[in-house]
Amino acid sequence: MTDTALLLRRLGRVHARARAGAVLLTSAGVALAIAGAGLSLAPQVAPIVAAWVLIGGIVVVAAALASRAGRRAGPPVVGRLVESTAQTRAGSVVGLLSPGATAGASRELLALADARAAAVVAGAAPAVSRLLARGTRRSVATGVAVAGLGAALFVASAPAAGRAAAFWHPLRAIADARAPVRLFVDRATVRRGDSVRVVVEVPAATRAILWTRGPGEPWRPTSVTLDATGRVTQWLGPLEADLYLRAASGGRRSVERRVTVALPAFVAGLELTARYPEYLGRPDEPLVPGTDTLAIPEGTVILTSGAASVPLAAATWHRPGAERGAVLSVDGTRFSGRLAPTASGVWRLALTTADATPLEGESPELRLRVVPDSAPVVTVPIPGRDTTLPLSLRQPLVIDARDDHGLTRLEVVSWRVSQTGKVGAAVRETLDVSGAGERTIVQGDLDATQRGLLPGDTLRLRVEAWDNFPAPATHVGRSRELALRLPSLEELRAATRTASQDVAAAADSLAGAQGDLGARTRDLAQERSRDASGTRRPSDGGRDAAGALPFQATERAQGVAREQEALQQRVQELSRAVEEITRAAQAAGLGDTAFQARLREVQDLLQRAVTPELAARLRELQDALSRLDPEATRRALERLAEAQQQLKAELERSEELFRRAAIEGALTSLAADAKDLQRRQAEWNREDAPRPDSTGAARQRALGDRTDSLARGIEQVAADLKAAGHEGAEGEKA
Fold first, then answer.
1. Per-residue DSSP letter, 610
2. Whether 120 contacts 92, CB under 8 Å
3. How far apart are CA 129 and CA 135, in angstroms?
4. Which residues contact 73 (CB under 8 A, 6 or more apart)?
5. Is the full-model pTM beyond 0.70?
6. What is the CATH number of domain 377-486?
7. Phi then psi for 382, rounded to 5 degrees?
8. Over the stretch 561-599, which tens digit does the pLDDT of each residue have?
9. CATH number of 179-262
10. What are the contacts of 424-430 at 24+ separation with CB within 8 A?
């Protein structure tokens, strides 16, 4: 190679490479722009394939253009530029690039020509470089601009985005373009009113058509835009009927899907009936579930029956906090059973469907307040508190027993407690409370005459009541215990004296009342006799001119009859009082046979005082008054006055006998008190006097009080004796 060729090659080498690089930059920019277009159109298969084909063609063309661009700055082109710039003969420089070996040519001449040409090249090199640089700069600027633009387009097309995967993997994109359309639903069965999530997946596609229809309806298209991965999610609903779906994209189609709308699960019907315990006697009642609290008696059973809209697997009444609920029987869509609540609370009906579909709406609930059956409440208003037994040893009782549902039995339980604290066996007396209902007030007597009580003993009692709750859980109510103390001998003797005085006063009052009533009866009879004689006419046969008994006279006669009946009742009460004094005297140790005989005599007189004749006269008067017969009324009044006079005499005799008996009894009881006082004083002198203390002083004061009481009793008896003697003298004078 000649020196000229070396200089020319060296002079054009930089520009050749720069121009080839410019071509490559331009080709790269174009390739990047095409790639950006392909990325933008991805995942469409056609643009992707076209882009890669164009990129391949550009690579081939770029190689050819780069080679041609290098040749434009090669030695021949540079040599011609040198010849033009140096204004030398054409071929003087280019001819030395590859001189041929001709025959007869001188090597020296060739070397000389090469040296001259090399000198020309060296001299023209600056100017030639400027000419070449002008074209090189244009080529490089163009290449850089095109490459920058292509790079910008490439970057703008998001080469790292999801859709770019199809572009970078064209073979897979071609395969995806042949894949079928896939359609997915999240649930094949939904409840009415729910929505369903639909996923359409179409590889290598940007849009798809979602077709939907209901039963018996035409298909309705909906255009959907796919994301970079070829997927789209749609929510369809709320659904009221079954839904059919399919998807399509181009010539590809998915399989058809069906979303079934299940029947709504709800409680179609519910009947609740409260069946109360038999002992209440209440009929069954319907119950209504809800937020209101229902009060039911203990032992109530709630009969449950109902149906759901779908087949059931289980039904249970459940209360929060309870270990077990009430399981109901299930038959298809129906359920039934019993709920026996034992505790208050909220009971909810839990229904489980056969397909585990939850029920719509809130579960039925019962807010129950179970009212326990309370024990009967028993009080004893009379006597109502601790007291002493009457002299008759028959304690009147008034018992008030009540229960919220009814009573079945009532018993008076009493037992003796001696002065020493010994407790006797309890005696039960059953009282009739049949048909009493929820409350009863019972009157009666507690007979202690056969209980073997001694003075100073106590008879304790309580009343027990049973309700009608079924056994063995029957409730028993008990009253407060009451203590009935039997007075001591001293107290009994004092009470006997007081009772005798009261009976004597009652006998005196009764005799006076009977005498007054007898006088009024005689006056009324005489008045009717005068009226009858003053108005009688010979022609009327002795009948009253008016033919009827005057109203005022009738009222007075009826008043006499009523008062006489009341006096007879008082006589009977007086007889019972004498009988009680007899028993009290026996209990007080007053066993004087004369005194007892006198009391029996008085009692016999009182019992004989109300004679059958007096009762007959009362009936005659009442019969005459009912017939309004004046003459019969007059005769009945006269006969009644005679019978009243006899009764008055018997009462006065009884009063006198009783006063004597009372004085005798008082003397006997005072004598017994004096002996008892003497005994206790001797005991005090023997036991307490040698060692004086507060206890001994208290006992001595008590003995002094008893002495004063005994003295007052003796004074009272003396006064009674004096009064009895005075009345006896007046009676003899009369």
1. S
2. yes
3. 10
4. 12, 13, 15, 16, 18, 19, 132, 136
5. no
6. 2.60.40.2060
7. -125, 115
8. 777 777 777 777 777 776 776 666 665 555 555 556 656
9. 2.60.40.1930
10. 427/451
